[in-house]
Amino acid sequence: MAIRFSVLTVSDRSARGEREDLAGPALVKQIEAAGHTLVHTSVVADEASDISRMLILWCDAGETDIILTTGGTGFAPRDITPEATMAIIQRPALGIAEAARAFSLQLTPHAMLSRNTAGIRGRTLIINLPGSPKAAREILEYLLPVLPHAVELLEDNPQAEQGHGKVSA
């Protein structure tokens, strides 16, 4: 199943052109290598209104199954991606964020400093990933096997129930 992804990089410096966005393109490469479709990419500053506006636009257009954000999930004062995400979702998907953090904790104790979240708006799943390209790629690789089933469930696919308990790569 090909999933339609969008990738939103949240970074003041990348938005101002002071630093190259490495995490967004790394995720795009990984998505395409896995045989999925890229619908949108963008870079925004760490501003709640900018993040929320882009998430709403992409979700409500109905063209994207999953939005991955990268950046803004740490402890720095301007790291507000989780708050901007929670402000626009209709249903939380906390198990995804918990699983991502638990997986990352096996690799580094710094994972406990991540405030990432996940949630659903309409039929679109939003997942916050770290701003580190390495960490974002590792977590996406871990999550990829369950995402097709998540999309089937969001689409209300009658065959989705048959996939419970089965994870295929």
Give me the secondary-structure topology.
Layout: E1 4-10, H1 12-15, H2 23-33, E2 37-44, H3 48-61, E3 66-70, H4 81-88, E4 91-92, H5 94-105, E5 118-121, E6 124-129, H6 133-143, H7 147-154
Parallel strand pairs: 1-2, 1-3, 3-6
Antiparallel strand pairs: 4-5, 5-6
SSE pattern:
EHHEHEHEHEEHH
Portion in beta strands: 15-25%
Envelope shape: globular
Number of strands: 6
Specify Rg, calculated over alpha carbons. 15 Å
* Main sheet summary: 6 strands, mixed
Structural commentary:
The mean pLDDT is 95. A hairpin with a 2-residue loop joins β5 and β6. The chain is built from 7 helices and 6 strands; from the N terminus they run βααβαβαβαββαα. It has one domain: MoaB/Mog-like domain (Molybdenum Cofactor Biosythetic Enzyme, Chain A, 3-Layer(aba) Sandwich), CATH 3.40.980.10. A 6-stranded mixed β-sheet has the order 2-1-3-6-5-4, sandwiched between helices. The protein has 169 residues and is of the alpha/beta class. Helix content is 40%, strand content 19%. α3 crosses α4. The protein has helices at residues 12-15, 23-33, 48-61, 81-88, 94-105, 133-143, 147-154; strands at 4-10, 37-44, 66-70, 91-92, 118-121, 124-129. The relative contact order is 0.17.
